[in-house]
Structures are given as C-alpha cells and as structure tokens.
Design a protein that fits this description.
Largest sheet: 6 strands, parallel
Number of helices: 11
Radius of gyration: 19 Å
Shape: globular
Strand order of the largest sheet: 2-1-3-4-5-8
Oligomer: single chain
Strand content: 15-25%
Length: 279
C-alpha cells in the first residue's frame, strides 16, 4: 500500500477552492485532525488564481497533497488544459497526492480527469452528483427564498448528494493510500425530481416553493441576467437527461455508512434560517 504524505504529519494539503462548498469542509476536517492545511483562493495566503499560473508555484510550496476543484465547472472549455497544467506543476513541486472533484455524467469533465491521471501523481477522482448545498450555498438559494425554482430539468430525477459526504470521501482519499488510482462515484440514497425537492423545501420552510421547468434557451437567458456562465444551461440539460438517474454506493464503499438524505439536509438548513425571506 502506498503511503499518504499525511501519515508523517509533515506535509501541507493545498485545498484549491478552499472557501467553496466542499473545499472548506475538507479543510475543516483535515485541520480537526491536526493536519496542516493551506486554503487556495484569491484571498488565500499566498493567493491562488486559476487564470494566473504564476500564483500556482507559491501556493504549492511545501505541499504534499492537493484537493482540486475547478470553478465554475470542470466540464467547461479550458478546464482540462488548466487542470493538466496545474497537475504537472504540482508533481514537479513534490505534491504527489492529487484528489480531483469531478461530476457524474459530465463527459466534458473526463478530459480533465485524464489530464490529472497523466500527470504522474497518485491520483483519485471523486465524481459527485448534484449537491444538496446548491440549494442553500450556491446559485439556487435566491430562487428558494423567492419561492420558485426555475431550471431546464423537466421531469428529470437526481440522487442529490451532501457536500459533507463528499468532503469525508475526499479526506479519506487524501490521507489513505488505498484510494490512489481509483474513481469514486458518489450520490445520495434516493432519487428526487425537482418537483419533489420543491415539495420537501416547502414542508421544512412552511411556505410554498414551486418548481418551474423551462427550456435550455430560457434558462440561458436567466443565467445571463444573473451574470452566471451561460454554458451551464447546456450542461444542466445534458447531465439531467437521465444518465445519472440511479443512486450509486460510493459513499458506503469508502466510508462504511449510508449517505445523508436530502430530507435531513433540508431540515437542518431550514432550522438555520437560510431560506427565510428577507425582512
């Protein structure tokens, strides 16, 4: 079995996207074990910026492992080239353990996975379904507060997965050499349509939240209005075509427990008041 750089407690883990939904959870879990962590972000010390390769080397100084996320999405143009270039720099600098967050069913993300795998690193790929936290920490929190989920999803169903489960799997991959060279596919325990999601969110918030299916073209206009990458409209239309309409057992395989259910997530988030309408 290969040995993680963390078994000695000597090396730092760089969390690229360390302020994001999964990255900050990975950072917190590693820190709670007493393992040194560096947050890779524009506001980090030193800063990390995907579009500025000159920032990569300083961020990798003294790093033995990297948790790698790409914003806004790994399937978008330019992602594979950036991930490949960064992975090669990381290996040259001595960061031999690379764990990449990828997306289930995203064919465009496979090129980035291959770039990682060809870098010479001890790699692990974590392919995840839609996050629960997209509804309270990302682009859907506003629509939930407003009471209307507008998406080009039709009657598609998805086994939504919790960012905490993704983080637990990523930490296992970063700290246990048995995960090197493996692809872990993660999902939640059951399939939900977006109308089901709206119903569950309505139940926990005590007010009506509706799901409004729209075309990809209509959603592209919504994204443009919100200042979000319009390419995401086509991606949503692709990954919600049924290719991911089945749960997988990656969380149980890696962690030995069931993944968190959407209902448990929704109750906890509602209790925090995250979806309370503005006063």
């Amino acid at each position: 079995m290969s040995t993680s750089p963390h078994t000695t407690g000597m090396s730092t883990t760089l969390i690229v996207g360390g302020t994001g939904k999964t990255g900050r959870r990975v950072a917190a879990r590693l820190a709670s074990r007493g393992l040194p962590v560096r947050v890779g972000s524009r506001s980090g010390t030193p800063p990390f910026v995907w579009e500025e390769p000159a920032t990569w080397g300083p961020a990798l100084e003294g790093v033995g492992a990297v948790y790698l996320t790409y914003h806004p999405d790994l399937a978008l143009p330019g992602a594979a080239e950036a991930v490949g270039a960064f992975s090669r720099v990381a290996v040259e600098r001595g960061a031999l353990r690379l764990v990449l967050l990828s997306g289930r069913g995203e064919e465009g993300a496979r090129a980035a996975e291959r770039a990682l795998q060809e870098s010479g690193a001890d790699w692990t790929v974590v392919r995840a379904s839609w996050f629960h936290q997209n509804f309270d920490e990302s682009f859907l929190v506003g629509p939930v507060r407003a009471g209307e989920l507008v998406l080009p999803a039709g009657d598609a169903v998805e086994p939504f997965v919790d960012a905490g489960d993704i983080a637990d799997v990523a930490v296992a991959a970063l700290t246990d050499g048995r995960h090197a060279g493996r692809v872990h596919e993660l999902s939640g325990p059951r399939l939900l349509g977006f109308a089901d999601v709206a119903a569950e969110l309505s139940a926990v918030t005590g007010r009506e939240i509706r799901y409004l299916p729209v075309s990809v073209a209509e959603y592209r206009a919504v994204l443009e209005k919100e200042g979000l990458p319009v390419e995401l409209a086509g991606l949503f239309g692709t990954v919600l075509d049924g290719r991911n309409a089945h749960p997988v057992d990656g969380v149980r395989q890696v962690l030995g427990r069931a993944p968190r259910d959407f209902a448990d997530y929704a109750r906890e988030a509602a209790a925090r008041g995250v979806w309370d309408p503005p006063r």
